[in-house]
Specification:
Blueprint lengths: L13 H4 L3 E5 L3 E2 L3 E3 L5 E2 L1 H13 L2 E4 L5 H10 L4 E6 L8 E3 L4 E10 L16 E5 L6 H10 L1 E5 L2 H10 L4 E5 H11 L5 E18 L8 H13 L2 H15 L6
Parallel strand pairs: 1-5, 1-6, 9-10, 9-11
Antiparallel strand pairs: 2-3, 3-4, 6-12, 7-12, 8-11, 8-12
């Protein structure tokens, strides 16, 4: 409850201005970074890192990843959200947000229908085909730049809809993170129809992304130290394997 001052007039809530609570946003379905678990929990590797830091520093955490990514970025810019659970580095974003050190690497894959395969080894092999990718998000500097200049790509508002387009033959491929895509295929029950084709188009480092308008940005250096510690102790890898097990590898058990 906010403190009171000057009679009945409430004083400003200092939990935001002093960063007593870290508010986390992020994508709803980005395995293993941030996602909704089968029991309804909002979880993921990026959320784990912030929770561990908050526990050590006696801070509260609020998680809200159940909103569109574009809305998340808008609230992050305003400082209503302090940090996203993960983001790829983008040069133009660096003017608006602060990045942590990377804590994960995400493979961006070409997904193809098994009955409509075509030769692919590098991104230039996608020229002459129509692709799809999520609306509103980045796939990294290299892919974004090449895609905008050289590829015929449409943008889908949801990941599920992207794979609908591929199944129906409206596009020839989908560009998406490896485990994000595999988990979605399992959820839709079409994992035997669509495959991820190696090698990855890119391997993108994943960072926490802080608002420049958030008081919590002062914790970035200490959070970087925590990321290094968790990596050195093997805990990051343990958590990656845990989250991938929750969202990809055990989905044959009825999810």
């Amino acid at each position: 409850m906010a403190q009171q001052s000057d009679g009945n007039k409430p004083a400003a809530d200092t939990s935001r201005s002093n960063c007593r609570t870290i508010t986390i946003g992020g994508p709803t379905s980005w395995q293993p970074i941030s996602y909704i678990a089968k029991d309804g929990r909002q979880t993921g590797l990026g959320i784990d890192i912030i929770r561990e830091y908050a526990k050590r520093e006696n801070l509260d955490v609020r998680v809200d990843i159940e909103m569109p990514w574009a809305r998340t970025l808008d609230l992050l810019f305003q400082g209503e959200i302090d940090v996203t659970a993960g983001a790829y580095f983008k040069t133009e974003r660096q003017r608006l947000y602060h990045y942590s050190d990377p804590f994960y690497e995400d493979d961006i894959m070409v997904f193809q229908h098994v009955d409509r395969r075509f030769g692919y080894r590098q991104i230039s092999d996608l020229r002459g085909y129509r692709g799809a990718r999520p609306h509103g998000g980045s796939l990294g500097n290299e892919i974004d730049s090449y895609s905008s200049q050289n590829l015929d790509v449409i943008y889908s508002p949801t990941i599920d809809r992207i794979f609908d387009l591929l199944v129906a033959g409206h596009v020839d491929y989908v560009l998406l993170g490896r485990y994000d895509g595999l988990a979605t295929l399992r959820k839709l029950g079409i994992q035997d129809e669509i495959i991820a084709v190696d090698p990855p188009v890119a391997r993108n480092p994943v960072h926490l992304m802080f608002s420049r308008n958030s008081p919590c940005r002062r914790h970035i250096q200490q959070i970087n130290a925590l990321i290094a510690e968790l990596g050195d102790r093997g805990i990051l890898q343990e958590r990656i394997e845990y989250h991938l097990g929750q969202t990809v590898f055990d989905l044959d058990n009825g999810s």
